[in-house]
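Pasting as-is:
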Amino acid sequence: MRLPDAENAIVEIAKLHDYSLNATHEEGKQKARVFAAALGISADDADWLREKLLEAALHHDGVPGRNTPHGERYILDFPLAKGPLDARVRSVWNVPPGETAPRLITCYVL
């Protein structure tokens, strides 16, 4: 199943640059280390990763996750390659109550 309203998906660059790809962030550094090892990417590649996440939202199927007071969650796994490296990435999206566009909550290499 495609994400609802995927063409309007939102990926905040700060979430990628300052958290998921930040090797010094207290909570995000593990994700950043795995992104670096698996795909050779760092915080400098946040714009590239954002574009790949938005493409995945449009072209890959996801599965509904749990419904929370903050909205309906969706889990979307997709293959990602950068140069000779490739990995499978999990992205988790949320559609807040009263909204239609999914927002990226988190992403990491499986």
